[in-house]
Design goal:
Keywords: Signal. This protein is of the alpha+beta class. It has one domain. Helices cover about 20% and strands about 25% of the residues. The protein is built from 5 helices and 10 strands, in the order H-H-E-E-E-H-E-E-E-H-E-E-E-E-H. The chain is globular and about 40 Å long.
């Protein structure tokens, strides 16, 4: 009887003991994804950007035909073709920014020009708000040393035809894009900026 009683007590105690909760599994931490590597810059970006800056002003593109579209009548000619009896003419106004002119040779756009106002060679430390936007952030009147920092590599410096040794030509050519830019300088100051077809940029007296 005592054995049966003890067995009953053990069973009763077992029934009263609360069941132990099942062990909670540790949370699984997802691995942190590794960000993809940045793509390497494409080769020739500088040259490509330069060609884009030299190739057009707004909708006016170097090499494009000019003179027969309805909107071309808004441009004002300088009368060079009649005066020189040639096929070269200068235009301004139209859709050109104020202070910029355009050379047209054989009825095709060949070059854009920016000349300063007032006396040439006057130093201007910052680009005037009214000045037309030129390639590479250049402006007439800026310091030549600062201009050289903004130009792509490969600039050729040559003596100016009229004001040497006090002045030079700074010429950069993109042979692949067939475009060029030239600065005229005097006493360390940029006095003129023009760009377009390399043969047109070589004309030191405009249409002459």
């Amino acid at each position: 009887m005592r054995g049966i009683a003890l067995a009953c007590i053990v069973l009763a105690l077992a029934a009263c003991t609360p069941e132990q909760p099942a062990a909670t599994p540790a949370p699984v931490t997802a691995p942190t994804p590794t960000p993809p590597a940045a793509p390497a810059p494409a080769a020739g970006t500088e040259a490509g950007d330069a060609a884009a800056q030299l190739g057009a002003v707004g909708d006016l593109r170097i090499g494009a035909a000019f003179g027969k579209a309805p909107g071309d009548a808004a441009f004002v000619s300088a009368g060079m073709r009649e005066a020189m009896e040639g096929d070269c003419e200068y235009y301004d106004r139209g859709t050109l920014p104020q202070g910029m002119s355009m050379m047209v040779i054989a009825d095709h756009i060949a070059r854009f020009d920016v000349d300063g106002e007032g006396d040439p060679g006057v130093r201007v430390d910052t680009r005037p708000a009214t000045a037309p936007v030129a390639p590479f952030g250049l402006w007439v009147g800026m310091d030549v040393a600062e201009a050289k920092k903004r130009l792509p590599a490969g600039v050729v410096v040559s003596p100016h035809a009229y004001v040497s040794p006090n002045g030079d030509y700074l010429t950069w050519t993109d042979a692949q894009a067939k475009l060029a830019l030239r600065l005229e300088t005097l006493d360390g100051v940029v006095t003129s900026i023009y760009w377009g077809r390399p043969d047109a940029v070589e004309l030191i007296e405009g249409c002459a």
